[in-house]
Specification:
CATH architecture of one domain: 3-Layer(aba) Sandwich
CATH topology of one domain: Rossmann fold
Largest sheet: 7 strands, parallel
Bound molecules: 2-amino-2-deoxy-6-O-phosphono-alpha-D-glucopyranose
Number of helices: 8
Oligomer: single chain
Structural class: alpha/beta
Radius of gyration: 18 Å
Helix content: 25-40%
Length: 264
């Protein structure tokens, strides 16, 4: 696990966006795994700017989102499909048919989960997966106790996650308690994973993910099994880490090595 500690949320977004921009430049038909939540918004703004500056194009890119609320139609303002349209898709040249978000309002959601897995396989698999982090260590909507090899399926949300996400719903609005989410196994199949976490409220989950035991109690700890994952966090999210000096040292060594190899 590569741990990159940046000063603040802006620097985290810039670092993450640079990885996406490089990926799209190197492979214009990349398959991207995308995430919702407030953390990725600044990264998406950077991608929109890079597109507008004609640095990158998304016209060959395919995308798969991590999750969706069960029961919300794509046009529902709190659906993750709606979020993606507003935050990214409406502002870039990605083809609508190349953007996939789990079908929250599917007539047969169980079948929709299987179809989603199939569609990822048919696309050739995800090249670069973006993740945020729940306060309880969830990735996507894989809540604590999720199977570490799970695939796309329906998941019940914890009370904590429902409370955390209540800020997006108005008081009289129905807030789903169920979701469709890529599984942890689905996420681990991505060729490269980048997880962003910012703010003090994520510090406990960040510590469990990086330094805790591999455990279904912290679904993000499953990333310890992945061979190409970079965790980008700000100082506040890093504040509970015990080995912070070592992670910084590794980053310095990496930079020096890359400079020596002419790859900086
Ligand atoms: C939701 C999403 C997750 C996201 C998490 C954290 O529960 N399903 O994919 O990582 O929220 O969101 P935020 O970035 O707003 O803290």
């Amino acid at each position: 696990m590569q741990v990159v500690i940046k000063a603040d949320a802006t620097a985290v977004a810039e670092y993450g966006a640079a990885i996406f921009i490089r990926q799209i430049m190197q492979k214009p038909d990349s398959v991207l795994g995308l995430a919702t939540g407030s953390t990725p918004v600044a990264l998406y703004q950077q991608l929109i700017s890079a597109y507008k500056a004609k640095k990158i194009s998304f016209n060959q890119v395919k995308s798969f989102n991590l999750d969706e609320y069960l029961g919300l139609a794509p046009e529902h303002p709190q659906s993750y499909r709606f979020f993606m349209q507003q935050q990214l898709f409406n502002h870039i040249d990605i083809l609508p048919e190349n953007t996939a978000v789990p079908e929250g309002a599917a007539a047969d959601p169980l079948q929709a989960c299987q179809d989603y897995e199939q569609r990822i396989v048919e696309s050739g698999g995800i090249d670069l997966q973006l993740l945020g982090l729940g306060r309880n260590g969830h990735i996507g909507f894989n809540e604590p106790s999720s199977g570490l090899r799970s695939r796309t399926r329906i998941k019940t949300l914890t009370k904590e996650t429902i409370a955390d996400n209540a800020r997006f719903f108005s008081a009289d609005e129905y807030q789903p308690h169920l979701s469709i989410t890529m599984g942890i196994g689905t996420i681990l199949d991505a060729r490269k994973v980048i997880l962003l976490a910012t703010g003090e409220s994520k510090a406990v989950a960040v510590k469990a993910m990086i330094e805790g035991p591999l455990s279904a109690s912290c679904p993000a700890s499953a990333l310890q099994l992945h061979q190409n994952v970079v965790v980008v966090i700000d100082e506040a999210a890093a504040s509970h880490l015990e080995n912070i000096a070592f992670y910084r040292h590794i980053e310095q060594e990496n930079e020096q090595l890359l400079a020596r190899l002419g790859k900086a």
